[in-house]
Specification:
With 218 residues, the protein is mainly α. It has 2 domains: 2-91, no CATH class; 99-209, Isoleucyl-tRNA Synthetase, Domain 1. It contains 8 helices and 5 strands. The strands form 2 sheets. Strands 4-3-5 form a 3-stranded mixed sheet. The protein has a two-stranded parallel sheet with strand order 1-2. β3 and β4 (45-46) form a beta hairpin. α5 crosses α7. It is elongated.
């Protein structure tokens, strides 16, 4: 069992374990992770909150303001040990400055390519019609994915998943901007799309791990 407490509640860890033991449970089965403070920023200014005065922002308010995808991505993207600035204006921005938009847009770009092909696509089993070196960065990042997931799980550092997705999205956007993908060479296009389908699958899988949806169109 894993629980998450705020930095100012560190003293509750032993009390929590003692309570579990008191009711006959095994206190060694619960691990507590400490979360640092979150500042909410809007219009370039911090929104001041106070428990004593009752001034607070609820999670429901944040979801209504920016949506679940942006919130989940932004929260997960920071290490628990790092203080976080939650920029509400950035979270709703429809541009590459917004990290969740940047990641989802990479998936949507590939989806758009598959909607645009005019021939019968099939998965390539060999790559003899393309310059594989132009895909070297994409392929290298793809190969890192299993190790990233393993490390994120074993060390409880899910922010590594966000970092990975942004790295893969960056490689995809760079390739997409530099290379003409859809041509009249059917086999060449199939080979390109086979690699890009792998990128799309990994982006979707990684985002699903942190509860973020993909978008077919943006």
């Amino acid at each position: 069992m894993i629980d998450v407490l705020g930095a100012d509640h560190h003293g509750y860890i032993q009390r929590l374990k003692a309570a579990i033991a008191y009711v006959g449970g095994n206190p060694d089965l619960i691990d507590v992770e400490i979360l640092q403070m979150v500042r909410v920023i809007q219009d370039g200014k911090e929104i001041k909150m106070s428990k004593r005065s009752g001034k607070a922002i609820t999670m429901r308010d944040l979801i209504d303001e920016v949506g679940t995808d942006a919130l989940r991505f932004l929260f997960v993207s920071k290490s628990l040990s790092t203080h976080m600035d939650l920029d509400l204006d950035l979270a709703v921005k429809q541009s590459n400055e917004n990290p969740v938009y940047y990641a989802q847009y990479a998936y949507a770009r590939i989806a758009s390519l598959f909607r645009s092909i005019r021939h019968s696509y099939h998965v390539a089993t060999s790559f003899t019609h393309i310059d594989v070196t132009k895909f070297s960065r994409l392929i290298l990042v793809l190969l890192q994915y299993p190790q990233v997931v393993t490390e994120a799980a074993e060390k409880r550092i899910p922010h590594k998943i966000c970092q990975y997705v942004l790295n893969l999205a960056s490689a995809l956007h760079s390739y997409y901007n530099d290379e003409k993908i859809l041509t009249d060479q059917e086999e060449e296009v199939n080979e390109k799309l086979t690699i890009l389908k792998s990128v799309q699958i990994v982006i979707q899988n990684a985002l699903q791990l942190i509860g973020v949806d993909v978008k077919e169109e943006m």
